Amino acid sequence: MLAVPTFADTVKQYVLVKVGYPVYVNGQEYTSGEQPILNYQGNTYVPMRSVGDILGADVRWNSELNRSEITYGGGMPHANNAFRHIQVTGSNGHYTVTGEARVFEAVMNYVVSAQNNDLAESTYMLNEGAPTWSPFSLSIVIPADQLPLSGTLKIELFEYSAKDGSRINVMPLVLETFTPRVNN
């Protein structure tokens, strides 16, 4: 005679309840009709990407490793196979991003986004392509009416794969984090 566990023993059920109280992150209230705040046994759950945007963290799905990844503060990469010595300066829609790149055929790309909305995307031609490291300086201007009232303005440096056209060697960077102004 064999002992076979019943299906019910292997299934766990979770009852999540939409919360009726506000959640504040750095003084900013999180609100979303599409992604509500939930509670499970006294623990509050807020969507990772939303909190990441508010805090200036990079939240992404790594399809190669099949996992979610959050990179925040000092955890942001300062170099990868294609970009190194990166520095970001500026504020209020005027930014300079400098560093060195080593990319195929001297073509690097970038996209500027806020709250998962692309605001600007462009290609930049370096003086030399890989395997040489070539310096670059990007001047980024985002009009005031496109700047977020709250959340994080980000830039991703990357190159397109010669094999399949996908983005590779992606380097996410924070340009500026905006917090809502409180009128006194």
Automatic annotation (TrEMBL):
Residues 24-74 form the Copper amine oxidase-like N-terminal domain. This is Copper amine oxidase-like N-terminal domain-containing protein. It comes from the Bacteria. Residues 93-166 form the Bacterial spore germination immunoglobulin-like domain. It comes from Paenibacillus terricola. The lineage of its organism: Bacteria, Bacillati, Bacillota, Bacilli, Bacillales. Pfam families: Cu_amine_oxidN1, Gmad2. InterPro entries: Cu_amine_oxidase-like_N, Gmad2_Ig-like_dom, Mao_N_sf.
